[in-house]
Amino acid sequence: MKLAEALILRADCQKRIAQLQQRLLRSAKVQEGEQPAENPETLLSELDAAIAQLRTLIQQINQTNARTVFQNATLSDALAERETLQMQRNVYSNLVDAASIRQERYTRSEVKFFSTVAIAQIQNQVDRLSRNYRELDAQIQALNWQTDLIEVSRET
User: Fold this and answer.
1) 34-46 mean pLDDT
2) With helix as H, strand as E and coil as C, how does the chain read?
3) Which of 9, 11, 48, 94 has its Cβ near the most Cβ atoms within 10 Å?
4) Lowest-confidence range among 25-29, 73-77, 98-102, 136-140?
């Protein structure tokens, strides 16, 4: 199995767990004399199996990321770089949004606001960070489809 396939399975497994949780909550209590729509014990068994599958997938994905070479580092390092690029981009973008807010003044006695940052310069940084993120993400995605998932022992 390729790493990209395992990532898709992980997302599907996380969705399944969330759905099972909702079904469990709906079946957790009923009115006296009624039966739950689904058997909670069966749902708990399905939940435990899904969580065990998720644990194995996460272990395999993490080990694969840590052992896969990406440029002069590992795929784990590239993922950290991508995450921090996105974080930095979001902060700068929010700063541009906050500094760009126009407030209409209807009288001279109303407070006037001024931007304290160079909006155009920060917007250029947002654009640069966005481009860097997209390029890195494309490289990571390509590698994910080329990399075989590392199998781990299921004894954990």
Assistant:
1) 95
2) CEHHHHHHHHHHHHHHHHHHHHHHHHCCCCCCCCCCCCCHHHHHHHHHHHHHHHHHHHHHHHHHHHHCEECCEEHHHHHHHHHHHHHHHHHHHHHHHHHHCCCCCCCCCCCCCCCCCCHHHHHHHHHHHHHHHHHHHHHHHHHHHHCECCCCCCCC
3) 9
4) 98-102
Asked if the model's pLDDT at residue 156 lies above 60, the reply is no
The C-alpha angle with vertex 83 and arms to 47 and 15, in degrees rounded to 5, equals 20
Residue with tokens 């407070």: 111
- Closest Cα to residue 96, out of 124, 135, 132? 124
pTM of the model: 0.84
- Per the CB < 8 A criterion, the answer to whether 6 and 68 are in contact is no
131's tokens: 């481009």
pLDDT of residue 96: 95
Contact 150, 63 (CB under 8 A): yes
Question: What are the tokens at 76?
Answer: 């784990």
Q: How far is CA 95 from CA 45, 84, 90, 120, in A?
A: 47, 16, 8, 11
